[in-house]
Amino acid sequence: MDLPQKRKRISYELTNSQTSSREAAPSSSTNGQAGGFVEGSILRITMRNFLTYDHSEVFPGPKLNMIVGANGTGKSSIVCAICLGLAGKTAVLGRGDKVGLYVKRGCSKGSVEIELYRASGNLIITREIQVENNQSTWMLNKKHTSQKAVEEAVKELHIQVGNLCQFLPQEKVGEFAKMSKIELLEATEKSVGPPEMYEFHCELKTFRSKERDLENVCKEKANFLEKARQRNERNKLDVERYYMKKRHLDRIQMLEKKKPWVEYETARKELEGVKKEREEMKKKLKSLKEAQEPLLRKIRSVESQLQPIEQQMKELVSTHHKPDSQESILYFLYYIKIIQDLSLKQTEEADRQKRIGHTQLMIKDLQKELQNMGSMEDVTPQIEAVNAELRKIQEEKAKLEGEMSDLRRDKDEKSSKEIGLQNRQRSLDDMMKVKEDKLRTRFRDTYTALKWLRDNRDRFEGNVYEPMMLVINVRDSRHAKYIESHIPLNDLRAFVFQRQEDMEKFMTEVRDTQRLRVNTVIAPEESCSRRPPSRPLETLKPYGFFSYLRELFDAPEEVMSYLCYQYKVNDVPVGTEKTKSMIEMVIRELQMRMIYTAEEKYTVKKSNYSSNVVSSNSALRPSQFLTMTVDADERRQLEEQLRVQSIDQRMAAIREQQAKLDRRDNELRANKKKLSELKGKKRQLEQKISTKQDRYLPLKANCVQLCCDFLSLHTSFISFSQCKVYLALQSAGLSAEKTKLETDCRDSSAELKRAEVVYTKLDQVKNNLLTTCKTLMRRASEICNMTPGETAVPEELHQAFSQLPDTLDEIDAMLNEEKTRAECFTGLSDVVEEYNRREREIQNMEKELDDKTNALTTYRQNIAEAKERWHLNLKQLVDQINERFSDFFRSMQCAGEVDLHSENEEEYDKYGIRIRVKFRSSTQLHELTPHHQSGGERSVSTMLYLMSLQELNRCPFRVVDEINQGMDPVNERRVFDIVVRTACGVNTSQYFFITPKLLHYLKYAEQMTILCVHNGPYMLPPHKWSEKAFIRRAKRRQIP
Question: What family does the entry list (predicted)?
Answer without folding.
Answer: Belongs to the SMC family. SMC5 subfamily.
